[in-house]
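Structure in, sequence out. Go:
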């Protein structure tokens, strides 16, 4: 499967019908998901690896990992409506997975890689902090999306947890929101995806 075939497949997945603002369900765009998963795949971090998708939503990141040959994917999501959609999306692909319907705080499995697009903390300040901390205790390699403006904050949490940033991709995230306060139908915000890696013991 090529990167563009992956993007087309992902663009056909079912998405949230109504975004729940409180949970900050800003879904990853299919082109962006394909780009990041492809990079991870090229770094040999997907095929035959166990992946955890924290705050999986409708599953685009974890499903992309399954498409690229992940050994197993944990989908961790607390919103039951999202899980209904996730289950329908999973029927469109093969591979081994486990759906964990709970708060990420209760997830206690280990994985090779975490790939996550957590809430950005726009409504609840630093809502992404528990996601980063959970990711760091789950795997030694983490791909995580955050608002560009929070880079120094992400870096500081990584350092506190003995992780370092190795890669950084920048995207204009389309927010297809219909909330009244959004004047334009499609707004864009600058989002970064960072690859974070645990420091080796010396
Ligand atoms: N990863 C998906 C969804 C991103 S939106 C994508 O990339 O498209 C963030 C998701 O995190 C939402 O589905 C929301 O319900 C979920 N979420 C937020 N807080 C959570 C928590 N504490 N535990 C589990 N899931 C959570």
């Amino acid at each position: 499967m090529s990167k563009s075939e992956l993007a087309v497949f992902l663009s056909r997945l079912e998405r949230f019908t109504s975004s729940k603002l409180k949970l900050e369900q800003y879904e990853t765009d299919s082109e962006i998901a394909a780009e990041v998963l492809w990079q991870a795949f090229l770094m040999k971090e997907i095929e035959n690896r166990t992946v955890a998708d924290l705050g999986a939503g409708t599953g685009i990141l974890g499903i992309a990992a399954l498409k690229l040959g992940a050994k197993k994917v944990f989908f961790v999501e607390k919103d039951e409506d999202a899980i209904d959609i996730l289950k329908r999306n999973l029927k469109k692909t093969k591979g081994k997975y486990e759906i964990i319907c709970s708060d990420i705080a209760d997830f206690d499995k280990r994985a090779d890689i975490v790939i996550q697009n957590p809430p950005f903390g726009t409504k609840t300040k630093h809502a992404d902090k528990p996601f980063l901390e959970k990711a760091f205790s789950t795997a030694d390699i983490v791909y995580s999306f955050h608002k560009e403006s929070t880079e120094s904050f992400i870096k500081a949490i990584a350092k506190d947890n003995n992780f370092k940033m190795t890669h950084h991709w920048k995207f204009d995230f389309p927010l297809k929101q219909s909330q009244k306060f959004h004047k334009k139908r499609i707004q864009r915000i600058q989002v970064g995806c960072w690859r974070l890696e645990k420091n080796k013991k010396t």
